[in-house]
Design brief:
Layout: H1 3-62, H2 70-96, H3 109-117, H4 120-175
């Protein structure tokens, strides 16, 4: 293979690697945005539900509800469990949309000045390392967001089951 063809081949491979790195970065950034969007919607839902629960408690207090029987205490305990689970879910959702510490490609003036003056070979290697390091950090961030959103959904499901039990207890009290 002639040196000219070899250089073209190397350039083409380097371009493929950079294109691949850019695609992976965009993919991870998309996952990052996806999880934040889901968490934002979940937080809105949970905030409304928790507000409704606070309204119910306020109404119960206003009607002088005092637990006397075992059924009344079961209702109070179930209500506290529901509120606790939803509050935990809300907290994990909040962790997902936390902005601080998110991974970004290098964007300082020093970086741009270096890129402007660096030889082409050094520049390509530097850009590769920037993408690689940022993608690694972004993957860690996205995995942490994924873990927290998973916890939030699991707590929401447990809260829904506890709500169903609470509703059944309320219906039993109302009928009895």
């Amino acid at each position: 293979m002639s040196p000219v063809l070899l250089m073209r081949y190397i350039d083409a491979m380097e371009q493929r690697v950079m294109d691949y790195m850019k695609d992976r970065y965009e993919e991870e950034l998309g996952r990052f945005t996806h999880f934040e969007g889901k968490s934002s919607r979940l937080m809105t839902y949970l905030t409304v539900i928790m507000g409704a629960l606070v309204f119910i408690v306020k109404s119960a207090i206003a009607s002088n509800f005092t637990p006397v029987s075992a059924l009344d205490w079961a209702i109070v305990i179930s209500f506290c469990l529901v509120f606790f689970l939803l509050a935990c879910s809300w907290g994990h959702s909040l962790l997902v949309i936390k902005v601080a510490g998110s991974a970004n490609l290098a964007r300082e003036t020093v970086t741009f000045e270096y890129m402007k003056s660096a030889p082409l070979e050094d520049l390509e290697d530097y850009m590769y390392r920037c993408y690689r390091d940022t993608i690694e950090l972004l993957i860690k961030d996205v995995d942490m967001k994924s873990t927290n959103i998973t916890f939030a959904y699991e707590e929401l499901v447990c809260g829904a089951w506890a709500s169903a039990i609470l509703l059944i207890l309320i219906v039993i009290r109302w009928l009895g």
